């Protein structure tokens, strides 16, 4: 792997580095969803959810399609779910360190 490839990979991972975007990806595991459905599931205003959707789309993680006035989103790269499952395993394997990190961030 060269630097350019590493940079692209880091940009994809950076797109997942926000809890709202992880929630969006999780919501899309059940299939296509319109912005209004995602808005209700994630419970943030539409302008914020649109920004998060744009980040995920630029990273190639999701794709959109128009159906009349509605825009539907889907997972373009469902393999990204493996990365999220891996994150859960890392948390389980290093629960003590993770709890300490959360306490530091809450201060």
Question: What topology does this entry show?
Answer:
Layout: H1 3-15, H2 19-27, E1 33-34, H3 35-42, H4 46-58, E2 62-67, E3 70-75, H5 80-93, H6 95-106
Antiparallel strand pairs: 1-3, 2-3
In percent, how helical is the residue content? 55-70%
Specify the CATH class: Mainly Alpha
Structural class: alpha+beta
Any idea how many domains?
A: 1
What string, H for helix and E for strand, traces the elements in order?
Answer: HHEHHEEHH
Q: Could you give me the name of the CATH homologous superfamily?
A: Winged helix-like DNA-binding domain superfamily/Winged helix DNA-binding domain
What is the number of strand segments? 3
Percent of residues in β-strands: 5-15%
Terminal CA distance reads 38 Å
How many helices does DSSP assign?
Answer: 6
Question: Taking Cα atoms only, what radius of gyration do you get, to the nearest Å?
Answer: 15 Å
Globally, the shape reads globular
* Known CATH architecture: Orthogonal Bundle
Low-confidence parts lasting 5 or more residues at pLDDT below 50? Answer: none
**Major sheet characteristics:** 3 strands, antiparallel
Strand order of the largest sheet: 1-3-2
């Amino acid at each position: 792997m060269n630097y350019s490839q590493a940079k692209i990979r880091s940009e994809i991972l950076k797109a997942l580095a926000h809890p709202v975007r992880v929630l969006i990806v999780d919501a899309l595991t059940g299939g296509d969803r319109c912005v209004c459905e995602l808005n209700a599931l994630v419970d943030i205003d539409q302008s914020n959810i649109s920004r998060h959707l744009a980040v995920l789309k630029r990273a190639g993680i999701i794709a959109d399609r128009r159906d009349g006035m509605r825009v539907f989103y889907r997972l373009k790269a469902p393999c990204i779910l493996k990365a999220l499952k891996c994150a859960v395993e890392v948390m389980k394997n290093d629960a003590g360190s993770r709890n300490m990190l959360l306490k530091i961030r809450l201060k």
